[in-house]
Design goal:
Elements: H1 13-32, E1 54-63, E2 67-76, E3 79-80, E4 84-89, E5 92-104, E6 107-109, E7 111-112, E8 117-122, E9 133-136
C-alpha cells in the first residue's frame, strides 16, 4: 500500500526530445556565449582527398615464407595491394616496404577503406610494434 502516489506516467518522446534540445541549447550558450552561432552538426570525415592513407598497428606477427603481418584499423584513406608504405613511430620513419596482401575477416581483399579492421601482409622484415603508423608513400 506504500505505492500510492509514487507512480509516474511515462513521458512523451517528443516532450523528452524538446526538453533535451532546450538543455543542450542552454549548455552551448554557456560555453560559446551564443547558441545560435553554434553549428547544428559538424561532419566527421575519415580522411581527405589526396592525403596518404594511414593504418594504426595493433598487433604484429611473422608468417614464414610470406612476410610480416600487421593487424589494425585503417584510420584514413584507402590502402591497396601493391602500395609502397612507410612505417612511422612517433615522428620518425623506421622503414619502407611494399604491401603484398590484405585480409579482412578471413577473406582476401585488394583494398581496405577507412574505418575497416584489416591484416596487412608486408614484404620483408621491419621493426613493427603496437601503435606504429603505416602510411602509404609515393609509388616507386
Amino acid at each position: 500500500m506504500g505505492w500510492f502516489g509514487k507512480k509516474r506516467d511515462p513521458q512523451d518522446a517528443n516532450e523528452m526530445l524538446r526538453r533535451y534540445n532546450e538543455a543542450e541549447t542552454a549548455r552551448l550558450a554557456g560555453m560559446t556565449g551564443d547558441a545560435s552561432s553554434a553549428p547544428a552538426m559538424v561532419p566527421h570525415t575519415l580522411g581527405t582527398a589526396g592525403a596518404p592513407a594511414e593504418f594504426v598497428v595493433e598487433d604484429v606477427f611473422t608468417i614464414t615464407g610470406r612476410g610480416q603481418v600487421a593487424t589494425g584499423k585503417v584510420s584514413s584513406g584507402t590502402i591497396r595491394v601493391g602500395d609502397r608504405i612507410v612505417v612511422l613511430r612517433g615522428a620518425t620513419e623506421i622503414g619502407v616496404s611494399e604491401l603484398t596482401g590484405i585480409e579482412m575477416f578471413r577473406k582476401k581483399a585488394t583494398a581496405a577503406p577507412a574505418g575497416t579492421m584489416a591484416g596487412l601482409l608486408l614484404r620483408g622484415k621491419l621493426d613493427l610494434a603496437r601503435g606504429d603508423v603505416i602510411r602509404t608513400g609515393p609509388s616507386a
